[in-house]
Design brief:
Length: 287
């Protein structure tokens, strides 16, 4: 799409020369858009906010289901991880294009808070409602996947892959999980940030895929994705063995994975992306 802006001369009259711009917004304009979007999110009524958060949790879980299926049977480490990352990006594409409220992406609301368009209470309210809704959507999708017997596909290899993914996540130290969470949400929020530049659906999809593929391929940690990966593994062990393995029980999941990953996601998204771009562009101070 071509955008035409009439240039004005020093005397205020319209110049016969028009300025033509290509589709994407420039970073200062992206910052203003991020601030406006953050304000709208922080002031949304809780019912639609929660419903959209449940959708986002389900969308990310569907991306995780897709990735688990695709990497099953893969032997080459790098290409298999890359393929899994590309298909996992389905989740954020559904969030960005379809419209949903994702906790990790909403860390960028700090841009509206830093410019004083959103109060801290509104920011924390959004994060609390959205985090809860994401959890409901992700765990609910895990339940549906179990009821569908998805783990039985490929003679049970899909279920084995799901268990292996959960075991890796539960084997990390607190600091490893935290650091991987920081790196993950820096990339996720960069994907959301880049989507602010696009005016077309194709443009949004094109900029979302590479950062998401990168974080998955590199093994970084996303709290909402883990709300699917670990519960579905818990369900598989219960179905197959009649009990949830102690190593992936709810207690270890919360303390060893979900808490440090969530904290890391906040640092990576809110500080390393949102705060940095606010310091650079200070959108509310312009004009």
């Amino acid at each position: 799409m071509i955008h035409e802006d009439a240039a004005t001369s020093a005397g205020g009259t319209e110049s016969p020369v028009s300025e033509y711009r290509v589709d994407s917004l420039l970073p200062p304009e992206m910052a203003r858009k991020a601030e406006a979007v953050g304000e709208a999110k922080a002031t949304m009524a809780w019912r639609p906010l929660f419903a959209l958060a449940v959708l986002a949790g389900a969308f990310i879980a569907l991306g995780a289901v897709f990735a688990t299926t695709v990497v099953t049977g893969g032997t080459a480490f790098g290409p298999t991880r890359l393929m899994g990352g590309v298909v996992f990006s389905l989740g954020l594409i559904l969030v960005v294009v379809g419209g949903a409220e994702l906790f990790t992406g909403n860390n960028l609301i700090v841009m509206a808070w830093a410019s004083r368009r959103v109060k801290a209470a509104a920011l924390l309210r959004n994060w609390g409602i959205v985090y809860t809704g994401n959890f409901v959507g992700a765990v609910g999708t895990a339940l549906l996947v179990l009821l569908a017997g998805h783990h039985k596909q490929a003679w049970g290899q899909v279920g084995d892959t799901a268990l292996q993914i959960a075991e890796v996540k539960m084997s990390m130290t607190f600091m490893e999980a935290f650091a991987r969470g920081v790196l993950c949400n820096a990339l996720v929020c960069l994907a959301v940030w880049l989507s602010f530049s696009a005016r077309t659906t194709v443009g949004k999809v094109a900029v979302v895929v590479p950062p998401i593929a990168a974080f998955v391929a590199c093994g970084f940690e996303h709290c909402v994705a883990n709300m699917y990966f670990v519960p579905v593994a818990q369900g598989i062990t219960y179905v197959e063995e009649g009990a949830v393995a102690e190593a992936i029980g709810w207690g270890p999941f919360l303390t060893k994975n979900l808490v440090p990953v969530t904290l890391g996601n906040i640092v990576g998204g809110a500080l390393l992306v949102g705060a940095v771009y606010t310091l650079v562009y200070r959108p509310s101070k312009e004009g």
